[in-house]
Each structure stands twice: as C-alpha cells, then as structure tokens.
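Job type: complex structure
Entries:
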Amino acid sequence: DAKTTQPTSMDCAEGRAANLPCNHSTISGNEYVYWYRQIHSQGPQYIIHGLKNNETNEMASLIITEDRKSSTLILPHATLRDTAVYYCIVRAHSGNTPLVFGKGTRLSVIA
Amino acid sequence: NAGVTQTPKFQVLKTGQSMTLQCAQDMNHEYMSWYRQDPGMGLRLIHYSVGAGITDQGEVPNGYNVSRSTTEDFPLRLLSAAPSQTSVYFCASRRLRGNQPQHFGDGTRLSIL
C-alpha cells in the first residue's frame, strides 16, 4: 500500500500558485519524498524529491514540515499544461526499493 | 537521447495468445521495472530488476514473466493473454544507487479480446 495520502482532486486558476498537499505521517528517517506527475496518458515524469530540507528546481518547490509528516508541492505559476495527476511517493534511500504509486491528486488548471 | 523506449505502442491480442513487450534504455541504468495502469487507477508494479540476471516480483506479477540478460533490455512476456491484462504498460529505469529519479517510457497500450 502507498504510504501517502493526497486529495483526490484540486483546481487552480492559470497563473496562480498550485499548492498540492501530501500526508506521510508514517515516514521513517531514511525515506525520501518524491513527486511525479502524469499528463494525460503519458509516462510519469519526475518533478522533485527531498529528505527534510525544502527543495527547489526549475519545475517546482517542495516544502517538507519539520516533523516530516507532511509536505507540499508548489507550482509557482500554474499553466494549462500543468493539468495532470500528481503523485507523492515516499521511498527508502536503499536502491532496491521500488516506487509505489498511490492514486495521486488530479490537478486541473483553469483558464 | 532516447531514454526509455517501449515497443510496440499499441497492440491488440486474442485471449490465449502470447506476446513480448519490449523495453530498452540507453542510460546504463541498473534498475528497471514494469508497471501496469488500468483506467482511472494508479500504477501497479509487476516486476523489477536490479541488474542483469536478477529479477524480482512486484505487487501484481501473476501472468507475466521477465528476464534480464543485458543491462539495456527488460522484456515483459505474457504467456497466455487474458482480458484482465488489458491495460497500459509502462517501463521505467534509474540508477540503482542514490536518489536518482526514475525515467519512464511512453507506454504500450494493450487490448486483449
């Protein structure tokens, strides 16, 4: 079973920041938080990951709470092309551990 | 860069037929895996491999066989296709060590009549 809880769906106005929450209250010390998204029926696309510090890249920012029990993915200026299903996944640092996908959050960016 | 290449993109089979879905990556990734995605659902892991000659089962392995004879290729075999195996199949790869992101192929859409 996936170790994360995400809202089923969210809407966001184009140009606004999209804030996607994820609960991972049972995360252990060696587990990272990963975010992927799947646009329509394409293969999932990696967005960002982090352990305990906030992370930022060209696509998004990841904010992890101090107790690491939840996180938020932020798309600073959402566009229509960001409409997708967003998956929050926790995975141990060990290389053998597979990614386990839940049902994710369906983000709809509205013009 | 080709990345992860899956062939074919679409396939229709009759019940009982066999088929191999191909997956190749050119990034020298040790780890490769297969997922299936049913309509409106998340991805479920079928099989994975951490290197040539090593494979292991995921969440839904029944009805599927895999082998890993080279680093580059990780084919998925359906020995006797069933309608319940109608799905979209995704192959993925990544470096084994560290926290490297996983790269996915574009998928194979398989229908079994």
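Summary: Chain B has no helices and eleven strands. Chain B has a mean pLDDT of 94.
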